[in-house]
Design goal:
Two copies of one chain form a homodimer.
Chain A lengths: L2 H11 L6 E3 L6 E3 L6 E10 L10 H18 L3 E11 L4 H17 L3 E9 L3 E10 L15 E5 L4 H8 L5 H8 L5 H6 L4 E6 L4 H8 L5 E5 L7 H6 L3 H10 L6 E5 L4 H10 L4 E8 L4 E4 L20
Parallel strand pairs in A: 4-5, 9-12
Antiparallel strand pairs in A: 1-2, 3-6, 4-6, 7-10, 7-11, 8-10, 9-11
Helix pairs in contact in A: 1-3, 2-3, 4-5
Chain lengths: 314, 314
Protein backbone atom coordinates (compact mmCIF):
# COMPACT_ATOMS: atom_id res chain seq x y z
CA UNK A 1 0.00 0.00 0.00
CA UNK A 2 1.14 3.55 -0.59
CA UNK A 3 1.54 6.11 2.19
CA UNK A 4 -1.62 7.87 1.03
CA UNK A 5 -3.68 4.66 0.84
CA UNK A 6 -2.62 3.95 4.46
CA UNK A 7 -3.63 7.46 5.53
CA UNK A 8 -7.00 7.01 3.81
CA UNK A 9 -7.40 3.71 5.70
CA UNK A 10 -6.84 5.52 8.97
CA UNK A 11 -9.08 8.45 8.01
CA UNK A 12 -11.97 6.13 7.14
CA UNK A 13 -11.97 4.69 10.67
CA UNK A 14 -11.44 7.87 12.66
CA UNK A 15 -14.53 9.35 14.26
CA UNK A 16 -15.13 13.06 14.34
CA UNK A 17 -17.41 15.45 16.23
CA UNK A 18 -18.44 19.08 15.95
CA UNK A 19 -15.32 20.34 17.74
CA UNK A 20 -13.25 19.09 14.77
CA UNK A 21 -13.28 21.89 12.18
CA UNK A 22 -10.77 20.02 10.00
CA UNK A 23 -9.60 16.44 10.63
CA UNK A 24 -7.21 14.08 8.85
CA UNK A 25 -6.18 15.16 5.33
CA UNK A 26 -4.75 18.69 5.34
CA UNK A 27 -1.43 20.15 6.50
CA UNK A 28 -2.73 20.32 10.07
CA UNK A 29 -5.89 19.64 12.06
CA UNK A 30 -8.10 22.51 13.19
CA UNK A 31 -10.16 22.11 16.35
CA UNK A 32 -12.36 24.37 18.42
CA UNK A 33 -11.55 24.23 22.14
CA UNK A 34 -14.39 24.90 24.57
CA UNK A 35 -14.46 28.51 25.81
CA UNK A 36 -12.92 29.07 29.24
CA UNK A 37 -11.13 25.75 29.54
CA UNK A 38 -7.38 25.24 29.54
CA UNK A 39 -5.80 22.88 27.05
CA UNK A 40 -3.81 19.90 28.35
CA UNK A 41 -1.20 18.40 25.99
CA UNK A 42 0.94 15.30 26.35
CA UNK A 43 3.05 13.10 24.09
CA UNK A 44 4.36 9.61 24.76
CA UNK A 45 6.17 7.27 22.38
CA UNK A 46 6.39 3.48 22.28
CA UNK A 47 9.61 1.91 21.04
CA UNK A 48 10.02 -1.73 19.97
CA UNK A 49 11.84 -3.86 22.58
CA UNK A 50 11.59 -1.05 25.15
CA UNK A 51 7.85 -0.79 25.60
CA UNK A 52 6.59 -3.83 23.72
CA UNK A 53 7.85 -6.92 21.89
CA UNK A 54 7.38 -7.71 18.23
CA UNK A 55 5.37 -10.85 19.08
CA UNK A 56 2.65 -8.81 20.83
CA UNK A 57 -0.66 -8.63 18.98
CA UNK A 58 -0.87 -5.36 17.03
CA UNK A 59 -4.15 -4.50 18.79
CA UNK A 60 -2.40 -4.69 22.18
CA UNK A 61 0.33 -2.33 20.93
CA UNK A 62 -2.34 0.08 19.70
CA UNK A 63 -4.17 -0.12 23.02
CA UNK A 64 -0.97 0.49 24.98
CA UNK A 65 0.10 3.44 22.81
CA UNK A 66 -3.22 5.13 23.52
CA UNK A 67 -3.40 4.05 27.19
CA UNK A 68 -0.08 5.57 28.29
CA UNK A 69 -1.20 8.94 26.92
CA UNK A 70 -4.70 8.77 28.39
CA UNK A 71 -3.05 7.95 31.71
CA UNK A 72 -1.02 11.19 31.55
CA UNK A 73 -4.19 13.22 31.03
CA UNK A 74 -5.91 11.28 33.83
CA UNK A 75 -3.13 12.36 36.20
CA UNK A 76 -3.91 16.02 35.36
CA UNK A 77 -7.66 15.48 35.98
CA UNK A 78 -8.20 16.42 32.33
CA UNK A 79 -10.93 15.28 29.95
CA UNK A 80 -9.31 13.80 26.81
CA UNK A 81 -10.60 15.22 23.50
CA UNK A 82 -8.28 14.89 20.46
CA UNK A 83 -5.38 12.65 19.39
CA UNK A 84 -2.63 12.78 16.76
CA UNK A 85 -0.69 9.69 15.72
CA UNK A 86 2.89 9.73 14.36
CA UNK A 87 3.73 6.24 13.08
CA UNK A 88 7.15 5.21 11.83
CA UNK A 89 6.72 1.77 10.25
CA UNK A 90 9.31 -0.59 8.71
CA UNK A 91 6.85 -1.46 5.94
CA UNK A 92 3.29 -0.82 4.81
CA UNK A 93 1.78 -3.87 6.54
CA UNK A 94 -1.95 -3.42 6.18
CA UNK A 95 -2.91 -6.26 8.54
CA UNK A 96 -0.65 -4.90 11.27
CA UNK A 97 -2.02 -1.38 10.80
CA UNK A 98 -5.61 -2.65 10.96
CA UNK A 99 -4.89 -4.49 14.22
CA UNK A 100 -3.05 -1.52 15.67
CA UNK A 101 -5.92 0.84 14.79
CA UNK A 102 -8.46 -1.51 16.33
CA UNK A 103 -6.70 -1.30 19.69
CA UNK A 104 -5.82 2.38 19.40
CA UNK A 105 -9.18 3.67 18.20
CA UNK A 106 -11.22 1.48 20.58
CA UNK A 107 -9.64 3.25 23.51
CA UNK A 108 -9.98 6.66 21.83
CA UNK A 109 -13.67 6.09 21.20
CA UNK A 110 -14.21 4.78 24.73
CA UNK A 111 -13.02 8.18 25.96
CA UNK A 112 -14.85 10.26 23.28
CA UNK A 113 -11.55 11.25 21.73
CA UNK A 114 -11.24 12.03 18.00
CA UNK A 115 -8.13 11.13 16.00
CA UNK A 116 -7.62 14.36 14.05
CA UNK A 117 -4.22 14.03 12.40
CA UNK A 118 -0.78 12.52 12.35
CA UNK A 119 2.19 11.49 10.29
CA UNK A 120 3.46 8.34 8.54
CA UNK A 121 7.14 7.63 7.90
CA UNK A 122 9.14 4.56 7.03
CA UNK A 123 11.88 3.47 9.43
CA UNK A 124 12.42 1.44 12.61
CA UNK A 125 9.06 0.94 14.34
CA UNK A 126 8.24 3.93 16.54
CA UNK A 127 4.80 4.98 17.73
CA UNK A 128 4.31 8.59 18.77
CA UNK A 129 1.01 9.76 20.16
CA UNK A 130 -0.03 13.28 21.04
CA UNK A 131 -3.12 13.64 23.17
CA UNK A 132 -4.98 16.88 23.84
CA UNK A 133 -7.58 17.37 26.53
CA UNK A 134 -9.35 20.05 28.49
CA UNK A 135 -9.56 21.04 32.12
CA UNK A 136 -10.91 23.98 34.10
CA UNK A 137 -7.80 26.07 34.77
CA UNK A 138 -8.20 25.82 38.58
CA UNK A 139 -8.86 22.07 38.64
CA UNK A 140 -5.68 20.54 37.21
CA UNK A 141 -3.87 18.24 39.63
CA UNK A 142 -0.16 19.04 39.77
CA UNK A 143 2.86 17.35 41.26
CA UNK A 144 4.64 18.86 44.26
CA UNK A 145 1.53 20.29 45.91
CA UNK A 146 1.14 17.87 48.86
CA UNK A 147 1.41 19.04 52.48
CA UNK A 148 3.14 17.09 55.26
CA UNK A 149 0.47 14.98 56.95
CA UNK A 150 -1.40 14.26 53.70
CA UNK A 151 -2.36 10.66 53.09
CA UNK A 152 -0.67 8.79 50.27
CA UNK A 153 -3.16 6.73 48.24
CA UNK A 154 -3.37 4.79 45.00
CA UNK A 155 -6.22 3.62 42.79
CA UNK A 156 -6.62 -0.07 41.94
CA UNK A 157 -3.74 -2.44 42.72
CA UNK A 158 0.01 -2.39 42.16
CA UNK A 159 2.50 -4.86 40.71
CA UNK A 160 0.53 -6.93 38.18
CA UNK A 161 2.28 -5.55 35.11
CA UNK A 162 5.72 -5.93 36.67
CA UNK A 163 4.89 -9.51 37.69
CA UNK A 164 3.79 -10.28 34.13
CA UNK A 165 7.16 -9.03 32.89
CA UNK A 166 9.10 -10.90 35.58
CA UNK A 167 7.24 -14.20 35.08
CA UNK A 168 7.19 -14.04 31.25
CA UNK A 169 5.60 -17.15 29.77
CA UNK A 170 4.64 -18.34 33.26
CA UNK A 171 2.46 -15.30 33.96
CA UNK A 172 -1.28 -15.90 34.18
CA UNK A 173 -3.62 -14.36 31.59
CA UNK A 174 -4.88 -11.95 34.26
CA UNK A 175 -1.39 -10.61 34.94
CA UNK A 176 -0.48 -10.36 31.27
CA UNK A 177 -3.70 -8.47 30.57
CA UNK A 178 -2.55 -5.75 32.98
CA UNK A 179 0.77 -5.42 31.09
CA UNK A 180 -0.64 -5.48 27.55
CA UNK A 181 -3.99 -3.80 28.14
CA UNK A 182 -3.65 -1.37 31.04
CA UNK A 183 -6.73 0.66 31.98
CA UNK A 184 -6.00 4.38 32.16
CA UNK A 185 -7.90 5.88 35.12
CA UNK A 186 -9.47 8.72 33.15
CA UNK A 187 -12.77 8.96 35.05
CA UNK A 188 -11.04 8.59 38.42
CA UNK A 189 -8.60 11.37 37.58
CA UNK A 190 -11.43 13.79 36.93
CA UNK A 191 -13.44 12.53 39.93
CA UNK A 192 -10.48 13.07 42.29
CA UNK A 193 -9.60 16.57 41.06
CA UNK A 194 -11.21 18.26 44.05
CA UNK A 195 -9.79 15.95 46.70
CA UNK A 196 -6.23 15.28 45.53
CA UNK A 197 -3.56 17.74 46.67
CA UNK A 198 -1.15 16.21 44.10
CA UNK A 199 -1.42 13.40 41.54
CA UNK A 200 0.75 11.41 39.11
CA UNK A 201 0.31 8.16 37.19
CA UNK A 202 2.42 5.13 38.09
CA UNK A 203 4.35 4.44 34.90
CA UNK A 204 8.00 4.17 36.01
CA UNK A 205 7.35 2.43 39.35
CA UNK A 206 5.75 3.49 42.65
CA UNK A 207 8.90 4.78 44.37
CA UNK A 208 10.25 6.57 41.30
CA UNK A 209 6.94 8.25 40.61
CA UNK A 210 6.52 9.10 44.31
CA UNK A 211 9.84 10.98 44.19
CA UNK A 212 8.43 13.03 41.30
CA UNK A 213 5.12 13.57 43.09
CA UNK A 214 6.61 15.01 46.30
CA UNK A 215 7.92 18.54 46.60
CA UNK A 216 11.67 19.02 47.21
CA UNK A 217 12.46 18.30 50.89
CA UNK A 218 9.35 16.20 51.45
CA UNK A 219 9.43 12.52 52.35
CA UNK A 220 6.95 9.76 53.03
CA UNK A 221 6.39 6.75 55.22
CA UNK A 222 4.84 3.73 53.52
CA UNK A 223 3.15 0.75 55.22
CA UNK A 224 4.00 -2.14 52.96
CA UNK A 225 1.26 -4.35 54.39
CA UNK A 226 -1.26 -1.78 53.12
CA UNK A 227 -0.06 -1.81 49.49
CA UNK A 228 -3.07 -2.87 47.41
CA UNK A 229 -2.49 -6.21 45.71
CA UNK A 230 -4.68 -8.05 43.20
CA UNK A 231 -5.86 -11.62 43.83
CA UNK A 232 -3.96 -12.83 40.76
CA UNK A 233 -0.73 -11.28 42.03
CA UNK A 234 -1.21 -12.68 45.55
CA UNK A 235 -1.68 -16.11 44.02
CA UNK A 236 1.32 -15.80 41.70
CA UNK A 237 3.66 -14.29 44.32
CA UNK A 238 2.62 -15.20 47.86
CA UNK A 239 6.11 -14.42 49.23
CA UNK A 240 6.19 -10.81 50.46
CA UNK A 241 9.99 -10.54 50.12
CA UNK A 242 9.58 -11.06 46.38
CA UNK A 243 6.31 -9.17 45.95
CA UNK A 244 6.95 -5.96 47.86
CA UNK A 245 10.09 -4.92 45.94
CA UNK A 246 8.24 -5.62 42.72
CA UNK A 247 5.21 -3.57 43.80
CA UNK A 248 7.53 -0.73 44.84
CA UNK A 249 9.72 -0.56 41.73
CA UNK A 250 7.82 -2.25 38.89
CA UNK A 251 6.33 0.16 36.37
CA UNK A 252 3.52 -0.02 33.82
CA UNK A 253 0.61 -0.16 36.28
CA UNK A 254 -0.91 3.15 35.13
CA UNK A 255 -2.78 3.56 38.39
CA UNK A 256 -3.10 7.04 39.90
CA UNK A 257 -0.87 7.86 42.86
CA UNK A 258 -2.18 10.80 44.87
CA UNK A 259 -1.95 12.72 48.09
CA UNK A 260 -4.99 13.82 50.12
CA UNK A 261 -5.55 16.11 53.05
CA UNK A 262 -6.97 13.77 55.76
CA UNK A 263 -10.26 15.71 55.71
CA UNK A 264 -10.81 14.82 52.04
CA UNK A 265 -10.38 11.04 52.31
CA UNK A 266 -14.06 10.15 52.81
CA UNK A 267 -15.09 12.16 49.73
CA UNK A 268 -12.31 10.61 47.66
CA UNK A 269 -13.38 7.10 48.69
CA UNK A 270 -16.97 7.91 47.77
CA UNK A 271 -15.94 9.32 44.38
CA UNK A 272 -14.00 6.13 43.59
CA UNK A 273 -16.76 3.88 44.94
CA UNK A 274 -19.12 5.50 42.41
CA UNK A 275 -16.73 4.32 39.69
CA UNK A 276 -16.33 0.81 41.16
CA UNK A 277 -12.60 1.42 41.59
CA UNK A 278 -10.90 0.88 44.95
CA UNK A 279 -8.65 3.60 46.39
CA UNK A 280 -6.21 2.56 49.11
CA UNK A 281 -4.28 4.65 51.63
CA UNK A 282 -0.84 3.10 52.22
CA UNK A 283 1.30 5.90 53.63
CA UNK A 284 1.68 9.50 54.65
CA UNK A 285 3.65 12.50 53.43
CA UNK A 286 6.16 14.07 55.86
CA UNK A 287 8.86 16.71 55.72
CA UNK A 288 11.70 14.27 56.41
CA UNK A 289 13.14 14.23 52.88
CA UNK A 290 13.32 10.41 52.70
CA UNK A 291 10.99 7.61 51.67
CA UNK A 292 10.74 4.91 54.34
CA UNK A 293 9.08 1.57 53.71
CA UNK A 294 7.87 -0.11 56.94
CA UNK A 295 7.26 -3.85 57.04
CA UNK A 296 4.46 -5.47 59.05
CA UNK A 297 6.71 -5.72 62.18
CA UNK A 298 7.59 -2.01 61.98
CA UNK A 299 11.14 -2.58 60.68
CA UNK A 300 12.38 -0.72 57.60
CA UNK A 301 12.71 -2.56 54.31
CA UNK A 302 16.10 -1.91 52.79
CA UNK A 303 15.30 0.42 49.93
CA UNK A 304 15.33 -1.22 46.51
CA UNK A 305 16.68 0.99 43.77
CA UNK A 306 13.71 2.72 42.19
CA UNK A 307 12.20 3.19 38.81
CA UNK A 308 12.94 3.01 35.16
CA UNK A 309 15.42 5.32 33.45
CA UNK A 310 15.59 5.08 29.69
CA UNK A 311 19.29 5.86 29.61
CA UNK A 312 20.38 3.78 32.60
CA UNK A 313 21.81 0.53 31.14
CA UNK A 314 20.71 -1.86 33.87
CA UNK B 1 23.36 11.44 31.80
CA UNK B 2 20.11 10.06 33.16
CA UNK B 3 16.75 10.58 31.45
CA UNK B 4 15.78 13.12 34.10
CA UNK B 5 19.03 15.06 33.85
CA UNK B 6 18.45 15.32 30.08
CA UNK B 7 14.88 16.54 30.66
CA UNK B 8 16.18 19.13 33.12
CA UNK B 9 18.71 20.25 30.48
CA UNK B 10 15.87 20.80 28.00
CA UNK B 11 13.64 22.50 30.59
CA UNK B 12 16.38 24.98 31.51
CA UNK B 13 16.57 26.21 27.91
CA UNK B 14 12.88 26.31 27.05
CA UNK B 15 11.25 29.73 27.15
CA UNK B 16 7.79 30.22 28.53
CA UNK B 17 5.13 32.92 28.41
CA UNK B 18 1.90 33.73 30.24
CA UNK B 19 -0.15 31.35 28.05
CA UNK B 20 1.80 28.44 29.58
CA UNK B 21 0.03 27.53 32.83
CA UNK B 22 2.27 24.48 33.29
CA UNK B 23 5.32 23.68 31.14
CA UNK B 24 7.89 20.89 31.13
CA UNK B 25 7.95 18.71 34.26
CA UNK B 26 4.49 17.29 34.99
CA UNK B 27 2.42 14.51 33.37
CA UNK B 28 1.20 16.95 30.70
CA UNK B 29 1.49 20.60 29.77
CA UNK B 30 -1.37 22.99 30.46
CA UNK B 31 -1.84 26.00 28.21
CA UNK B 32 -4.45 28.72 27.87
CA UNK B 33 -5.61 29.21 24.27
CA UNK B 34 -6.77 32.70 23.29
CA UNK B 35 -10.58 33.08 23.43
CA UNK B 36 -12.37 32.78 20.09
CA UNK B 37 -9.50 31.29 18.13
CA UNK B 38 -9.36 27.77 16.73
CA UNK B 39 -6.46 25.50 17.60
CA UNK B 40 -4.27 24.14 14.79
CA UNK B 41 -2.33 20.93 15.52
CA UNK B 42 0.27 19.12 13.45
CA UNK B 43 2.89 16.42 14.01
CA UNK B 44 5.82 15.50 11.80
CA UNK B 45 8.63 13.06 12.52
CA UNK B 46 12.20 12.91 11.25
CA UNK B 47 13.79 9.49 10.77
CA UNK B 48 17.52 8.84 10.33
CA UNK B 49 18.51 8.08 6.70
CA UNK B 50 15.06 9.13 5.49
CA UNK B 51 15.01 12.78 6.40
CA UNK B 52 18.60 13.39 7.44
CA UNK B 53 22.00 11.65 7.60
CA UNK B 54 23.97 10.87 10.70
CA UNK B 55 26.83 13.15 9.54
CA UNK B 56 24.60 16.24 9.58
CA UNK B 57 25.33 18.73 12.36
CA UNK B 58 22.91 18.18 15.26
CA UNK B 59 21.84 21.84 15.07
CA UNK B 60 20.75 21.35 11.44
CA UNK B 61 18.69 18.30 12.45
CA UNK B 62 17.07 20.33 15.24
CA UNK B 63 16.34 23.19 12.84
CA UNK B 64 14.83 20.84 10.26
CA UNK B 65 12.65 19.01 12.83
CA UNK B 66 11.14 22.33 13.87
CA UNK B 67 10.98 23.77 10.33
CA UNK B 68 8.88 21.00 8.79
CA UNK B 69 6.26 21.49 11.51
CA UNK B 70 6.28 25.29 11.29
CA UNK B 71 5.81 24.87 7.54
CA UNK B 72 2.63 22.84 8.11
CA UNK B 73 1.18 25.59 10.30
CA UNK B 74 2.25 28.22 7.74
CA UNK B 75 0.20 26.37 5.10
CA UNK B 76 -2.89 26.72 7.34
CA UNK B 77 -2.24 30.48 7.84
CA UNK B 78 -1.89 29.72 11.56
CA UNK B 79 0.20 31.49 14.16
CA UNK B 80 2.48 28.94 15.89
CA UNK B 81 2.34 28.97 19.73
CA UNK B 82 3.44 25.79 21.52
CA UNK B 83 5.61 22.75 20.76
CA UNK B 84 6.12 19.28 22.22
CA UNK B 85 9.18 17.18 21.46
CA UNK B 86 9.25 13.36 21.50
CA UNK B 87 12.86 12.23 21.18
CA UNK B 88 13.92 8.60 20.81
CA UNK B 89 17.71 8.56 21.17
CA UNK B 90 20.17 5.67 20.88
CA UNK B 91 22.15 7.05 23.85
CA UNK B 92 22.24 10.00 26.21
CA UNK B 93 24.70 12.06 24.16
CA UNK B 94 24.75 15.46 25.84
CA UNK B 95 26.74 17.23 23.10
CA UNK B 96 24.36 15.99 20.41
CA UNK B 97 21.34 17.04 22.48
CA UNK B 98 22.80 20.51 23.08
CA UNK B 99 23.40 20.97 19.35
CA UNK B 100 19.96 19.67 18.48
CA UNK B 101 18.30 22.01 20.98
CA UNK B 102 20.24 24.98 19.67
CA UNK B 103 18.77 24.45 16.20
CA UNK B 104 15.34 23.44 17.41
CA UNK B 105 14.82 26.16 20.00
CA UNK B 106 16.29 28.96 17.83
CA UNK B 107 13.52 28.42 15.33
CA UNK B 108 10.89 28.07 18.09
CA UNK B 109 11.98 31.35 19.65
CA UNK B 110 12.11 33.09 16.27
CA UNK B 111 8.40 32.28 15.95
CA UNK B 112 7.49 33.05 19.61
CA UNK B 113 6.75 29.39 20.24
CA UNK B 114 7.19 27.81 23.68
CA UNK B 115 8.43 24.24 24.11
CA UNK B 116 5.98 23.02 26.77
CA UNK B 117 6.51 19.27 27.01
CA UNK B 118 7.63 16.06 25.42
CA UNK B 119 8.98 12.59 25.92
CA UNK B 120 12.40 10.89 25.98
CA UNK B 121 12.92 7.22 25.11
CA UNK B 122 15.91 5.12 24.16
CA UNK B 123 15.92 3.38 20.78
CA UNK B 124 16.73 4.00 17.12
CA UNK B 125 16.95 7.78 16.51
CA UNK B 126 13.48 9.22 15.86
CA UNK B 127 12.45 12.83 16.31
CA UNK B 128 8.75 13.54 16.75
CA UNK B 129 7.52 17.11 17.00
CA UNK B 130 4.02 18.30 17.74
CA UNK B 131 3.25 21.90 17.03
CA UNK B 132 0.15 23.79 18.13
CA UNK B 133 -0.94 27.15 16.78
CA UNK B 134 -3.94 29.39 16.54
CA UNK B 135 -6.05 30.81 13.74
CA UNK B 136 -9.32 32.69 13.44
CA UNK B 137 -11.80 29.93 12.52
CA UNK B 138 -12.76 31.62 9.21
CA UNK B 139 -9.18 32.36 8.13
CA UNK B 140 -7.59 28.92 7.81
CA UNK B 141 -6.38 28.10 4.30
CA UNK B 142 -7.52 24.66 3.23
CA UNK B 143 -6.69 22.37 0.35
CA UNK B 144 -9.27 21.69 -2.37
CA UNK B 145 -10.84 25.14 -2.33
CA UNK B 146 -9.49 26.58 -5.60
CA UNK B 147 -11.79 27.54 -8.49
CA UNK B 148 -11.02 26.91 -12.18
CA UNK B 149 -9.32 30.04 -13.49
CA UNK B 150 -7.42 30.70 -10.24
CA UNK B 151 -3.74 31.48 -10.61
CA UNK B 152 -1.23 28.97 -9.30
CA UNK B 153 1.59 30.66 -7.39
CA UNK B 154 4.49 29.80 -5.12
CA UNK B 155 6.57 31.75 -2.63
CA UNK B 156 10.36 31.94 -3.00
CA UNK B 157 12.07 29.55 -5.43
CA UNK B 158 11.85 25.83 -6.16
CA UNK B 159 14.40 23.06 -6.53
CA UNK B 160 17.36 24.11 -4.36
CA UNK B 161 16.89 21.37 -1.76
CA UNK B 162 16.43 18.68 -4.40
CA UNK B 163 19.54 19.90 -6.24
CA UNK B 164 21.53 19.74 -2.98
CA UNK B 165 20.43 16.11 -2.58
CA UNK B 166 21.15 15.25 -6.22
CA UNK B 167 24.57 16.91 -6.28
CA UNK B 168 25.67 15.63 -2.86
CA UNK B 169 29.25 16.69 -2.07
CA UNK B 170 29.32 18.80 -5.23
CA UNK B 171 26.42 21.03 -4.10
CA UNK B 172 27.27 24.64 -3.26
CA UNK B 173 26.89 25.92 0.30
CA UNK B 174 23.86 27.96 -0.83
CA UNK B 175 22.05 24.88 -2.12
CA UNK B 176 22.94 22.79 0.91
CA UNK B 177 21.68 25.53 3.23
CA UNK B 178 18.23 25.20 1.63
CA UNK B 179 18.22 21.43 2.32
CA UNK B 180 19.58 21.55 5.87
CA UNK B 181 18.12 24.85 7.03
CA UNK B 182 14.85 25.46 5.17
CA UNK B 183 12.92 28.62 6.05
CA UNK B 184 9.29 27.91 6.91
CA UNK B 185 7.11 30.66 5.44
CA UNK B 186 5.22 31.40 8.64
CA UNK B 187 4.68 35.14 8.14
CA UNK B 188 3.76 34.67 4.47
CA UNK B 189 1.20 32.00 5.36
CA UNK B 190 -0.60 34.41 7.68
CA UNK B 191 -0.20 37.35 5.26
CA UNK B 192 -1.75 35.35 2.40
CA UNK B 193 -4.74 34.02 4.38
CA UNK B 194 -7.16 36.51 2.83
CA UNK B 195 -5.96 36.14 -0.75
CA UNK B 196 -5.29 32.41 -1.10
CA UNK B 197 -8.21 30.23 -2.17
CA UNK B 198 -6.18 27.13 -1.22
CA UNK B 199 -2.68 26.57 0.19
CA UNK B 200 -0.21 23.74 0.95
CA UNK B 201 3.51 23.59 1.69
CA UNK B 202 5.87 21.99 -0.83
CA UNK B 203 7.39 19.11 1.11
CA UNK B 204 6.93 16.08 -1.15
CA UNK B 205 7.53 17.87 -4.47
CA UNK B 206 5.63 20.47 -6.50
CA UNK B 207 3.57 18.06 -8.63
CA UNK B 208 2.75 15.71 -5.75
CA UNK B 209 1.69 18.55 -3.49
CA UNK B 210 -0.26 20.18 -6.31
CA UNK B 211 -2.30 16.98 -6.67
CA UNK B 212 -3.16 17.26 -2.97
CA UNK B 213 -3.94 20.97 -3.27
CA UNK B 214 -6.46 20.64 -6.12
CA UNK B 215 -10.01 19.42 -5.62
CA UNK B 216 -11.02 16.10 -7.24
CA UNK B 217 -11.62 16.64 -10.99
CA UNK B 218 -9.53 19.80 -11.15
CA UNK B 219 -6.36 20.12 -13.21
CA UNK B 220 -3.75 22.75 -13.92
CA UNK B 221 -1.58 24.09 -16.71
CA UNK B 222 1.96 25.04 -15.72
CA UNK B 223 4.37 27.27 -17.65
CA UNK B 224 7.75 25.78 -16.91
CA UNK B 225 9.62 28.90 -18.01
CA UNK B 226 7.87 30.76 -15.19
CA UNK B 227 8.94 28.38 -12.40
CA UNK B 228 10.88 30.54 -9.94
CA UNK B 229 14.52 29.50 -9.76
CA UNK B 230 17.28 30.75 -7.44
CA UNK B 231 20.52 32.14 -8.81
CA UNK B 232 22.48 29.34 -7.16
CA UNK B 233 20.32 26.71 -8.80
CA UNK B 234 20.53 28.40 -12.23
CA UNK B 235 24.29 28.40 -11.86
CA UNK B 236 24.49 24.78 -10.71
CA UNK B 237 22.00 23.43 -13.29
CA UNK B 238 21.81 25.65 -16.39
CA UNK B 239 20.30 22.82 -18.48
CA UNK B 240 16.49 23.06 -18.36
CA UNK B 241 16.01 19.37 -19.22
CA UNK B 242 17.74 18.51 -15.95
CA UNK B 243 16.42 21.38 -13.87
CA UNK B 244 12.71 21.36 -14.65
CA UNK B 245 12.07 17.72 -13.66
CA UNK B 246 13.95 18.37 -10.45
CA UNK B 247 11.95 21.53 -9.71
CA UNK B 248 8.74 19.65 -10.42
CA UNK B 249 9.37 16.53 -8.37
CA UNK B 250 12.05 17.36 -5.80
CA UNK B 251 10.74 17.85 -2.28
CA UNK B 252 12.01 19.64 0.83
CA UNK B 253 11.62 23.21 -0.43
CA UNK B 254 9.02 24.18 2.20
CA UNK B 255 7.75 27.03 0.09
CA UNK B 256 4.01 27.75 0.04
CA UNK B 257 2.06 26.64 -3.03
CA UNK B 258 -1.24 28.50 -3.37
CA UNK B 259 -4.12 29.34 -5.65
CA UNK B 260 -5.51 32.85 -6.05
CA UNK B 261 -8.58 34.34 -7.70
CA UNK B 262 -7.11 36.65 -10.40
CA UNK B 263 -8.63 39.68 -8.63
CA UNK B 264 -6.53 38.95 -5.50
CA UNK B 265 -3.12 38.75 -7.15
CA UNK B 266 -2.08 42.38 -6.68
CA UNK B 267 -2.89 42.25 -2.94
CA UNK B 268 -1.01 38.96 -2.57
CA UNK B 269 2.05 40.40 -4.30
CA UNK B 270 1.92 43.45 -2.04
CA UNK B 271 1.61 41.27 1.08
CA UNK B 272 4.68 39.27 0.06
CA UNK B 273 6.62 42.38 -0.98
CA UNK B 274 6.13 43.70 2.57
CA UNK B 275 7.91 40.55 3.77
CA UNK B 276 10.69 40.77 1.18
CA UNK B 277 9.63 37.40 -0.23
CA UNK B 278 8.89 36.95 -3.93
CA UNK B 279 5.66 35.26 -5.02
CA UNK B 280 5.52 33.93 -8.57
CA UNK B 281 2.57 32.93 -10.73
CA UNK B 282 3.50 29.94 -12.90
CA UNK B 283 0.21 28.35 -13.89
CA UNK B 284 -3.55 28.26 -13.71
CA UNK B 285 -6.15 25.91 -12.27
CA UNK B 286 -8.66 24.35 -14.70
CA UNK B 287 -11.34 21.69 -14.60
CA UNK B 288 -9.52 19.32 -16.95
CA UNK B 289 -8.48 16.77 -14.33
CA UNK B 290 -4.84 16.64 -15.53
CA UNK B 291 -1.66 18.53 -14.79
CA UNK B 292 0.03 19.75 -17.99
CA UNK B 293 3.54 21.19 -17.99
CA UNK B 294 4.20 23.44 -21.00
CA UNK B 295 7.73 24.15 -22.16
CA UNK B 296 8.84 27.52 -23.59
CA UNK B 297 7.84 26.47 -27.14
CA UNK B 298 4.34 25.47 -26.03
CA UNK B 299 4.97 21.71 -26.22
CA UNK B 300 4.12 19.45 -23.28
CA UNK B 301 6.88 18.07 -21.10
CA UNK B 302 6.43 14.34 -20.65
CA UNK B 303 5.28 14.08 -17.08
CA UNK B 304 7.92 12.93 -14.63
CA UNK B 305 6.64 10.69 -11.89
CA UNK B 306 5.80 12.89 -8.94
CA UNK B 307 6.53 13.11 -5.28
CA UNK B 308 7.81 11.14 -2.38
CA UNK B 309 5.96 8.18 -0.96
CA UNK B 310 7.40 6.74 2.25
CA UNK B 311 6.34 3.22 1.35
CA UNK B 312 7.22 3.28 -2.34
CA UNK B 313 10.62 1.52 -2.62
CA UNK B 314 12.12 3.57 -5.44
Amino acid sequence: MSEFALIERIRARARTDKSVLLGIGDDAAVIQPAPGLALVATTDSLVLDRHFRSDWPAADIGHLAAAVNFSDLAAMAARPRWALLALTLPDADQAWLDGFLEGFLSLCHQFDTCLVGGNLSSGPLNIGVQLLGEVEPGRMTRRGRASPGDWLAVTGTLGDAAAALALGEKASVGLRQRLHRPTPRVAAGQALAEQASAMIDVSDGLLADLVHLLAPGQGAELKLADLPCSDVLEQAMPDLDTRWPLQLTGGNDYELLLTLAPSRLTEAEAACADLGLPITVFGRVNSGGAIECRQADGSLLEMPRGGWDHFDPR
